Every structure is written in C-alpha cells, then in structure tokens.
C-alpha cells in the first residue's frame, strides 16, 4: 500500500527548502511554504524505513547569506549515526517511532513526597562484563532492575538521553532533541526499560537540557538567532548556543524557542511515558515565565499521573520552588557542601547543619521542594573526598553511613548517585568511569549497601518523613552532637542523634527527648525506655543513631 506522507519544516524567514531522501535517490523535492512559515511537501511511500534530510537556504549569521545547508529534521525521532541522516519509519501508512506496545501503564506509581531517587548514567551503569571497554545500554540497566528493587529505590533519574555527537558523553551537549541516544540502544529498548520500571513501581525521571544545544544542532543552521541568543548571556557559564525564551515573533504570534521545547517536553512524556524532568542549568535559563509555562505543560500532558519537575538551580534560590516559583523541586546543593564538609571533619557549625537538614530555614516550603544528595555526577564520590583527607577503611565507611542517615532523614527528597550506596570511590570525570560492581563482594561495601537498603525502607514506609515537621531538641557544640525529631500528626516519630566528632562518647546523655516510653533503636536493633525526657546511649565517632517511637 502506498500512502502520501507529509514532510514539514518550520523555517518562517528562510527563502527555500527542499527535501532529499533515500526515497528520491537523494534528488531534491521542492517544498512550499504556508502562511505560518511551514515548508511542506507530500511523498508517496510504502511501509518501510527511509533516510532523509532537509536542504535549507540558511539565515544564520555565521554562514554566507542564503547559503544552502543540509540539516537533519529538528523533529527527527531517530538519527542514523553513520550517515547523520534522519530516519523515518512508516507502518500502516503512518510515521511511527517504533512498534513497542506498553504493558504496565496501569501500575500505581509513588507520589513525589515518597520518592527515593537513584541517579544513573546509562553508559557507566553496566559492569561485570569481560570487555572493560563495553559501554552500557538500556538493556544492561534493565538487567539491574532487580538490584535496584533490592536496594528499594522507587525512582531513577537518567542522565540525558537525547542524541549527542560521538560515542560517549554525559549528554549535556544535545544535538537532536527528539531522538534517543543511539549508542544506548533502540527506542523500543528505552521504552522496555521504562515499562519494566513502572511494572516495579519505579518512576523514571529524565535529565533534560533546555538551556542550550550542541552547536551543530539543526536549528542553529536554519536561522540561529530565531531560536537562540546571538551571544551567550554569561560567557563563563556557556556550554553552547543558548535558547532565547524572550524572543517573540509578532508576525506569527509565537515564541519560537518555547514552542520547540514545549513540543519536545510533550513528546518525551507522551512517547516515552516519563514521570519527571530535571532541568539542567535552570539558573542560566533564568526565565521564570517560560519555566512556569513548561511546568504547566508537563502537568497537562501527564494528566492524573504524578510528574515531578526539578531544577538544577546553582547557587540555589528558594524562589525557584516558592509560592510564585515555577518548579516542584530543586537540587539542594548547599546540603551537599555542608554535609560533606562535616563528614570530612573540615568544620562543625550547628546552625549550618540545621539550615540544610531543615530547608524551611532557607526559605523552602516543604518536602518536595529540595532534592538532597551526598554526591551526584558533578562531584566526587564520598570515598574519594575521604581519601583526599587521609580517611580510609572503617573510618570512611562509618562516615558514609552517617551521611546516608542524615540524607534519608532530612526534609526533602533523597537522591543517590549510582554506586554511592556501596562505596564506589571514583573521582568525577567526563571520561568513561563504569561502576565497579565487584566492590559489593567486600564485607565493608556490602555492609554499607545493607545500611542504605534499610534506610531506604525506613524512609519510604515511615510517614513522618512525608511532612515538614522537624525539631532540633538537643544541641551540644562542645561534643559536636546534634539531635532532631521528625514526626507527623498521626503519631509517627523518628529521632536522629548524630555525633560529628572523632571521639567515642560513652554513656552520653541526650536531654529534652520528645517523649517518654519505649523506643526502638534502628541501627543496632534494640529497645530502650526513656523517662524524664532523657536517654543515655553510647555514640561511636561519626555515628548516627536512629530511634523509632513504638
């Protein structure tokens, strides 16, 4: 069966556009422009797979006036790596992305306030294979879902998936915004991974770059200044052509950059059933009006299912998630800097600790407004930070456990960077750095994993963590002990007593305890009775004890 397939390119101020493709033996097919700036043509095609490009008379300032350039369709959903052509699939007379059939859309997914997020880079999340140069793919992440379920996390945050140049990258140089990164596998492989996550009650958040693109991205070649700023707003923090969300085309009544990114966000939610977006470099985007609009778009498309919009806004500003702010949450960078410094023994500042454990003191409003982490892809693993200060072995693992306890009991949504849960030790690098899964064979590393596993379970199942309540009821600057209570109105109570010193504190008395009666100490699994609102306990160096109200 032959059907007319329409090709379209929005290029409102360009003089001419032609279509070239495998279906025309790469001979030009002229396209006609309508009054909305869309060049269109129809081609009779049978079902199958085709490659194509657009040939455009460019209006970009870095090319000769009206110079002809060949570009990939900015809306191409697949790009052939070897030929750098757009790939078009036709089935039953209609363009499709793939033939994947979703199986688990009916599974309930956790709300934002109950999330424990696991950040991963697809290429480096594989491991254990004989070929040390093999890069991870979607199918390898799928093979490790049982591991993630054992850990207990209920959301993964995938570092950028949009097609980038070359074979290896963190993905912060997107070239083709609608195409999934080819080196990770097929679009169906990605959908299968997301579908199987949903089957296990795991939400899938994607890291997306809407501040800038790679310089070779097709829109830069069509008419650079129509979609992008002519020059970087801040050259010190410029990673490529920056989208211009202020530019309004009065003639056509549209914001070009907003329309393109809006289409892209809707596509990733509708086509890939994603459950949230982390917006890279949101401070550099800097346009609250645009961000309000794009977040509203995500909620409209997601409908009744939960969708979490997280800004990377560094240095942080609580207005990004405030009453009038656009985002649901933001990365809590001050938490990272404060907690890591205290775990390493660089300083002890009770007020600073209280500020990051209770983000309300920094102007944030609640549990979902911050995402807390001990590290992420932008920082060294904790074990590296410890090693840099001469802290190794048991001392390092003790501090890692203290950090995990603080992260899992602070106000906010906790996030684990892949491998941190068992003591991965690699420094930050943009080169390939696959997880060393063999570390789990070591007793200390496996013990840390089990500790994380227990904390994740505690975090998800104790509803005191779903509320903003926190009370710092015991502060002792001399011994460097801080104790706080998390609770809800239904009677759940959790107390954390943290020793930030390198001293063993025998028979330490904690005053002003929240309630008298029976408490269960979670880390060492024993019961204790309190009276006169006091408790006496041994606190090891750099240790947190966690007490649950019985």
TrEMBL record:
InterPro entries: A-amylase/branching_C, Branching_enzy, GH, GH13_cat_dom, Glyco_hydro_13_N, Glyco_hydro_b, Ig-like_fold, Ig_E-set. GO terms for molecular function: 1,4-alpha-glucan branching enzyme activity; cation binding; hydrolase activity, hydrolyzing O-glycosyl compounds. Residues 119-459 form the Glycosyl hydrolase family 13 catalytic domain. This is 1,4-alpha-glucan branching enzyme. Signal peptide: none annotated. One of its GO terms (biological process) is glycogen biosynthetic process. The active site is at residues 280, 312.
